[in-house]
Design goal:
alpha/beta; Aldehyde Dehydrogenase, Chain A, domain 2; 5-stranded parallel beta sheet; binds NADP nicotinamide-adenine-dinucleotide phosphate; binds magnesium ion
Length: 494
């Protein structure tokens, strides 16, 4: 047992309140009066009660965001920047609380929440805070002397953001930053499992002086609040991160008014280790590629391909390392892996493990729920399968839990073909010391991001997104500003 982080008094006070929706700068219960409990997945116990917004609340939020839009869009860019920087400053000042809310609501380890994720979210907010003064159009060299033609970038209007529970703070910041920097107003519907950091962010945004109605939060369920947001004709764009299945539904729902849609969906990402690589570094990377955030990671390196001559060595190293990982309560500083998010998720993951065994794969580590002191939460052993058929369920489907499937391969051509034989295309990793091979694979792997001799790195400056059924559009980087603006061409007859 490591040191136990004491709960911050402001977090205790926050959890004692009944949580509300933020609509047009006012905190309000859901119009229907409905509420839901958010649980601590490490204990299965309720943390606090939240408002369950539905279509009526979404409609009120859209109206508030529409009213706020003209003034926010017309605000001088340097003033929008000041407000967004103040928002980032407040996130920084309250980073302990934000990290604790994330640990309690999601279960994740303190080190990941406090030392990594809060900083990632703040850095994203600062990166986008700088954008209002850097948005530009172009002038065009048209083939006629009689015109001056230029373009301007303009905000879309009211945007909707729908986020998942695995990195709720980071996912929220990643959407709030560019949406507001571009001059849009926003309604955020966080995942029902982890609504708390979104609510705290909304308080900080108000405190920062972001005008009422510019940033609204409607907590609630996907089938009601989420669906209403995607169908609403007053919404110009939906930025969605979540499952491929729901992503497809959102594309359908958005057709009514032809909303812009950007989709960051699931994956089944390959990590490939060649026998010329640094085997120790590669094995460590493979361990964290799958087990970080207990495998509940869209870019999880869930398919591991190891060249046959080093396969046994890597397999034993990984099995030993997986069994040695410390699974436990997030606020215990020695914890490396927290629980899964819910009983439903645990049951899903255990279902895949049964399918893997039934299909004849060899279980070489883990495979079970963890009982004992941890029996109240949704804890699972880090799990590794070997010898699965390429087309078996555990080899092809996104499990979204701490389950690795490893395969042996013989040569480069074969492994590229197997790695690319997936409906997803989010991320891929390659470990090799052969420079030409590294660049060759970077070119041929079907993935929105390829990591060479590393895995799972992000920076606000670097675009991120998927191919195939992992979604379309990109987040992060300067390109995302294009996803939150319209490009207008202007012709002037001289
Ligand atoms: P999910 O079920 O798709 O939920 C994501 C969000 O969509 C939640 O806020 C959810 O609300 C909402 N939602 C559900 N049904 C909806 C509907 N019909 N209309 C509108 N919104 C709806 O995904 P999840 O299980 O929370 O997250 C896991 C998935 O997200 C995995 O597949 C993972 O790969 C993916 N993911 C992708 C990325 C990426 O960047 N590519 C990052 C993280 C996660 P409720 O909370 O009420 O269900
Ligand atoms: Mg929760």
């Amino acid at each position: 047992m490591g040191e136990l982080i004491p709960i911050h008094p402001d977090v205790e006070a926050f959890l004692k309140r009944e949580q509300k929706l933020l609509i047009g700068g006012q905190w309000a219960a859901a119009a229907s009066g409905a509420t839901f409990e958010t649980l601590n997945p490490a204990t299965g116990q309720p943390l606090t009660v939240c408002a369950a917004g539905d279509a009526e609340d979404i409609d009120r939020a859209v109206q508030a965001a529409q009213r706020a839009f003209p003034a926010w869009a017309a605000l001088m860019p340097n003033q929008r920047e000041r407000l967004l920087h103040r928002f980032a400053d407040l996130m920084e000042a309250h980073k302990t609380e934000l990290a604790q809310l994330e640990v309690l609501d999601n279960g994740k380890p303190w080190n990941a929440a406090y030392n990594v994720e809060v900083h990632v979210a703040i850095n994203q907010m600062r990166y986008y805070a700088g954008f209002p003064t850097k948005l530009t159009g172009e002038t065009y060299a048209i083939s006629s002397p009689d015109f001056h033609v230029y373009s301007v970038r303009q905000p879309l209007g009211v945007c909707g953001a729908i986020t998942p529970w695995n990195y709720s703070l980071v996912m929220a910041a990643q959407k709030i930053g560019p949406a507001l920097a571009a001059g849009n107003t926003l309604i955020l519907k966080p995942a029902e499992q982890t609504p708390l950091t979104a609510i705290r962010l909304a308080e900080l945004a108000l405190e920062a002086g972001i005008p009422e109605g510019v940033f609204n939060v409607v907590t609630g369920f996907g089938e009601t609040a989420g669906a209403a947001l995607t169908q609403h004709h007053g919404v110009a764009k939906i930025a969605f991160t979540g499952s491929t299945e729901v992503g497809k539904r959102i594309v359908g729902a958005s057709a009514g008014n032809l909303k812009h849609v950007s989709l960051e969906l699931g994956g089944k990402s390959p990590l490939i280790i060649f026998d010329d690589a640094d085997i120790h570094a590669a094995s460590q990377a493979a361990l964290w590629a799958i087990f970080a955030n207990s495998g509940q990671n869209c870019v999880a390196g869930s398919r591991l391909y190891v060249q046959r001559s080093i396969y046994d060595t890597v397999q034993s190293a990984l099995a030993a390392a997986a069994c040695a990982l410390k699974v436990g309560y997030g606020l215990d500083t020695s914890t490396q892996l927290g629980p899964l998010i819910s009983q439903t998720q645990l049951d899903r993951v255990l279902g895949y493990i049964e399918a893997g065994k039934r299909d004849g794969a060899a279980l070489i580590a883990g495979g079970s729920r963890i009982g004992g002191d941890l029996a109240g939460g949704y804890f699972m052993q880090p799990t590794i399968f070997a010898d699965a058929a390429d087309d078996s369920l555990i080899a092809a489907e996104e499990i979204f839990g701490p389950v690795l499937t490893m395969f042996a391969f013989d040569n480069e051509e074969e492994v590229v073909q197997r790695a690319n034989a997936s409906r997803f295309g989010l991320a891929a990793g390659v470990y090799t010391n052969n420079l030409s091979r590294a660049h060759r694979l970077a070119r041929t792997l079907n993935a929105g991001v390829v990591w060479i001799n590393t895995y799972d790195w992000f920076d606000p400056a670097v675009p991120f997104g998927g191919m195939g059924e992992s979604g379309y559009g990109r987040e992060l980087g300067r390109q995302v500003m294009e996803m939150y603006t319209e490009l207008k061409s202007v012709w002037v007859k001289l």
